[in-house]
Amino acid sequence: MMKLILTIFFLSCTLLLSSGQYSILEQPELLQKVEKCLYATYGFRFDEAGKIKEDLKIDLPGHPAPYFLEALVVYWENFPLLPDDAEVVNFEKAMEKTIALSKELKSQPDGEMEGIFFDLHARAFRGMFWADNGRPGKVIADIDNLYRSTMQGIEMKDQFNEFYFSSGLYNYYIDAYVEKHPIYKPVSLLFRKGNRKKGLQELEYASKNSTYIKYESILFMSLLQLNYERDMESALDYMSVLYNHFPENIYYLSQYLVILLHSKHFAVAEALNSKLGTSNNQFELLIYNMTEGFLNENYRNTSTVAEKNYLSVIKSYDNFGDIANLYVAIAYAGLARIADKEGDMQQARKFRRRSSRYASYEFIPGFR
Q1: How many other CB atoms are there within 10 angstroms of residue 63's CB atom?
Q2: Does 247 map to a domain?
Q3: H-state helical runs in 23-162
Q4: Residues 85-122 pLDDT 10s
Q5: Cα–Cα distance for residue pair 294/296, rounded to 1 Å
Q6: Are the beta carbons of 347 and 339 closer than 8 angstroms?
Q7: What's the domain range around 54?
Q8: Same domain (yes/no): 271, 208
Q9: What sign for the dihedral angle of Cα 90, 7, 245, 203?
Q10: Same structural domain for residues 191 and 81?
Q11: Prediction pTM value
């Protein structure tokens, strides 16, 4: 449930900046800088993003926004950012600065709502980083603040249209998650009731009518289609939009490849994956081997080569930890299918159990 609450805020960094009633947006030149910084960050153009972020520190002295953007640049430039990486210090420092400046902003007569936003999203994004890396204990202290601020944001959605994103995520996931995992129903009673149908409508509205949270809305529409609605083609449609806007973003590319492979669009996946084969980046090579393994198994019918690819992916877990769970789950599922074809039912069951242990999506161990 804790990770569910954190997920609600992941990648929603631009929410506040979309409302014309905030001072930052009363200055079009600053708004344009913020937009360019975000797009450059998502597009992995970090020199450009870094320069704009430094300019914003001069333009907005004492404001949390530039420091939040700084944390995002650190996160994406070092993606996947891991707990023992040296840059975690800079990521944490930028988030702490954002929280401190947000506290000061909240104490000002006209800054409460803006301060709440940046405090909330700094804590949430930092929490998501630790949760994704298997360190949930690092975020327990922030859960109460996160939930309280979430509820405040939901009440603001009619005042600020962009809050349909966070409202939609909460309404959808708090309902759908419990429906999928009934064991959490007693815990869910401690939280505000959700509405799956309403949440889906709010997210769809945000994906079509928002400006600065458009891509975050599209991302989550794709993810929920995969995990809850079980509509692979819809998930593919949403993710293709993200890839086409940000082809250099390895996270978007990896998610796009996963969906392409499991929806059997093998030729497209093969073409996109080719550029990763010459990379010196270990994470990109992980994605490359995951995709090659899947293609060798299911498209080229070379199971022996596929097995080597999958074993390489599994070995990569030692370097990346929980961030690699999705890809390790795919590798184990592939090994299970290969064992099935070879008639080794015992090995197939073992690998399938391991795939289920790492998988967050049911379609991964279930793919045939």
Answers
A1: 22
A2: no
A3: 28-42, 46-59, 65-77, 88-106, 112-132, 143-155
A4: 999 999 999 999 999 999 898 888 777 777 777 887 88
A5: 6
A6: yes
A7: 2-241
A8: no
A9: negative
A10: yes
A11: 0.87
